[in-house]
Amino acid sequence: MNKKLNEKQVMIIFAAAYAVLFLIFFPKFIYLLDDSNYLRTAFLFGQGKVCIDDPLYTYNDFSFNGKCYASENFPGYSMLLAPFTFLGWKLVFISGMLLHLFGTYIFYKVLKRTGQKGYYALLYLFFPSFVYFSTALINNYAVGVFVLAGFYFYLGKNARDWVISGAFFGLAVLTRYPAVLVFAVFIAAAFFRDRKKALMMLFGFAPFVLIIGLYNYSAFGGVLNTGYSPETNLAWQDETPFTWLNFLLKDLPTQLMVYTVMTLLLYPLMLLGIFFFKRKEKIEIIASSILMIGFYAATIAFIGDKYLMQINIPNMVFGNRHLLAVIPLMLVAYVPFLDSIIRKLRLDSRKLIGLALIPLIILAVLVLQTQAAVTGRNLAVSKAIYENTKEGSLIIGNDFNWLFLLEQIGDRQYLDINHQSAKQDSEGSYIVYTINFINQESGREEMQSALQEFNASLVFSGVFEARPWSTTQRPKIELYIYKIQ
Length: 485
Prior knowledge:
This protein is of the alpha/beta class. It folds into two domains: 7-369, no CATH class; 371-484, 3-Layer(aba) Sandwich (D-Maltodextrin-Binding Protein, domain 2). It contains 17 helices and eight strands. It has a five-stranded mixed β-sheet, with helices on both faces. A three-stranded antiparallel β-sheet has the order 1-3-2. β2 (62-64) and β3 form a beta hairpin. It is globular and about 75 Å long. Residues 234-239 have low confidence and may be disordered.
């Protein structure tokens, strides 16, 4: 780094570099299934609605509450996205870039408030998982940013800061309810150290409790009901075989090991930093980290998500999404831990961070370019579907084909091909089948079996590929569209 530049100037230059890279490789469409849900819910909120009345427009992605269909996901992130929807669906993705820049700014401010060197915030700016999730419309990273902001104001010395701290923690909980575990840690610590501080934090937090209660009541009929309640979430009703013995002796220890290894390798020995943090807030960071690791390890083990129970390079980047609520706090503790090691080795920390930026920036480019390629592929698939089906028509699809549908592009209804109504009054509808690396073996057999039940003719077939520099995401999708006679 050029020693003529101060820390702020260095941060501004690299933040601008990230922003330029983001805009060059701007996400072109929805990538994850959760992206679709949060984006569609944001448009729903922008229209002043909570539910969808017509099941053919739920796209198999909303839960029935007895009256209408509401998103099973937590509402906070879609509420934040709602103002961006007035710019059009394509520009909603810029929210991720702004969120990441805000998080980087807060992290820099935390470092300065805790007496650390500000240029260590570059490790936050180019943290691979943060770069990746800044391109996606899901809530995990937003929770981490809001928790970090809550922590920054938690470090303050006056009532105003503590109220703002409580508000940011409230925003984190509104965005993802399990973040209440983190808030519980901080409010408990504040209660034992300074009850006025705890009271001011609760004052800032209280409005979000009211918002959560009102939303839960409007969407699911009760202030304590959520989209993850057994009454509303079909996943609970189709539970795979579960045994406590397998959970306690195999799946839970496996996932705890996966998360432990990940947090030790994302940055070298990152997890250890929380145990060497020399401020009194060490207790809050340790307790929050352990609680969230334990909670989500138990959740994933209970669900039995075998994909997330693996340690590999892709999972190192995006398989830790549930830990993003506390990884920013881990990084706060990691900076002085890393700096002390560098000083003991008598190395120049500025030069070392400068060298570390080379692979980090290269990785950021790879991540952003890969996302641009994959979302570009998804956009091409979406365009093909809309161009080869009629306005207002019903699409009968396999797997997660509703990922490619968005009301703001065109009017299409959707039913899963296994839905009991799919074979009733289907004349003039379309069967849309996609085959990818997940269902490559079974997809063709299922498609041929389904076609035998319909009088349908092929109107389009094509292969869509993303050609990212990283080929780990198996980029090919085969698309088949049939018109039912």
